UniProtKB/TrEMBL annotation:
Single GO MF annotation: metalloendopeptidase activity
Top-level taxon: Bacteria
Cited PANTHER family: M23 FAMILY METALLOPEPTIDASE, PEPTIDASE-RELATED
Record keywords, A-Z: Membrane, Transmembrane, Transmembrane helix
Protein name, as recorded: Peptidase M23
Organism for this UniProt entry: Oleidesulfovibrio alaskensis (strain ATCC BAA-1058 / DSM 17464 / G20)
Organism placement in taxonomy: Bacteria, Pseudomonadati, Thermodesulfobacteriota, Desulfovibrionia, Desulfovibrionales
Length: 313
């Protein structure tokens, strides 16, 4: 028996109940991040279940959906962007007793046009199936143009290098297709290097005046050889050299959240290795298609590349 929106009845724009920040380390800062996402609270009359999701989202930007319940929750499934993701449910101790908690980190594709996009959350709460359907408003966001000059071989790519790139792309595709049914990630993300941003996410790029794909991550400043740290706990799925990305590490953080680190001078981890948040995974370098040493940091949410900046502490 489905009772649509009975448990998750909409209750206006104001946030309600316990601050979201309670559940995250560095919570105070994270609360302000969530506020940027224009969260709206929703819960039953009794306050037993609360679903939080933003009302407005932007192309290329991440957002968080959380479900918090006082009652036992067996299963939570989020449907977004044509995909259903099962979320693990955690039991957490609170001042008032126990709370069940599930969270998803979701993204809006860079090419998403403004309009309304459906978000659906299904949950089994105290043995009964419930469903909430919402429509998130996608607003327009402009990304600037960037022109770069790189070595000719990275623009007029030789057949052998293209073949190599295709093989690497297939491996990356597999890594980004992972939907590990655990949540290793937590917010805020740890900044992998302390340096400032030299190239923002989403730049519409021209290499040697030829149009290429938009910038799928951020470039962070860092001296050659300076340490790079994992943005969150996870499992290394790829640690290898790629034609464009140079020495690269991909970390699976569960629920389809994968972080990536490019152009490294050194790899300190291997595929299959479990890493902690903040663990050194290698060093800044200038391998692959670059103009100089820096860290390219990328974040894929269920295969959708997003701007990681709003998720840092
Ligand atoms: Zn980059």
């Amino acid at each position: 028996m489905m009772s649509h929106d009975r448990l998750f009845s909409r209750s206006g724009g104001a946030r309600q109940g316990r601050p979201q920040a309670f559940f995250f380390s560095g919570g105070i800062v994270f609360l302000s991040v969530l506020a940027l996402f224009l969260l709206s609270g929703a819960r039953t009359a009794s306050g037993a279940v609360r679903l939080e999701a933003p009302e407005v989202v932007f192309p290329g930007q991440p957002f968080v959906v959380t479900l918090i319940a006082d009652e036992p929750v067996e299963k939570v499934t989020v449907q977004w962007n044509g995909e259903a993701i099962d979320l693990p449910v955690e039991v957490r101790q609170t001042g008032a007793g126990e709370a069940r908690y599930a969270a998803a980190l979701l993204g809006v594709g860079l090419s998403q046009k403004p309009g309304r996009v459906p978000l659906r959350v299904d949950a089994v709460v105290s043995g009964a199936a419930h469903s909430s359907r919402r429509e998130l408003k996608v607003r327009d966001k402009e990304y600037p143009v960037q022109r770069l000059t790189v070595k000719k071989r990275y623009v007029d790519v030789a057949r052998a290098d293209l073949d190599r790139h295709e093989k690497e792309r297939a491996r990356v595709k597999q890594a980004l297709a992972l939907r590990t049914g655990m949540r290793f990630w937590d917010l805020p993300l740890h900044r992998p290097v302390p340096g400032g941003v030299s190239s923002v996410f989403g730049l519409r790029r021209f290499f040697n005046d030829q149009p290429r794909k938009p910038h799928s991550g951020i470039d962070l400043r860092g001296a050659q050889g300076s340490p790079i740290q994992a943005c969150a706990e996870g499992v290394v799925v790829l640690a290898e050299n790629h034609f464009f990305a140079g020495n690269s590490v991909y970390i699976d953080h569960g629920e389809g959240v994968v972080s990536m680190y490019f152009h490294m001078s050194r790899l300190d981890v291997r595929a299959g290795e479990r890493v902690k948040k903040g663990q050194v995974i290698g060093a800044v370098g200038s391998t692959g298609r670059v103009t100089g040493p820096h860290l390219h940091f990328g974040l894929s949410l269920q295969g959708v590349f997003v701007d990681p900046m709003p998720l840092f502490e």
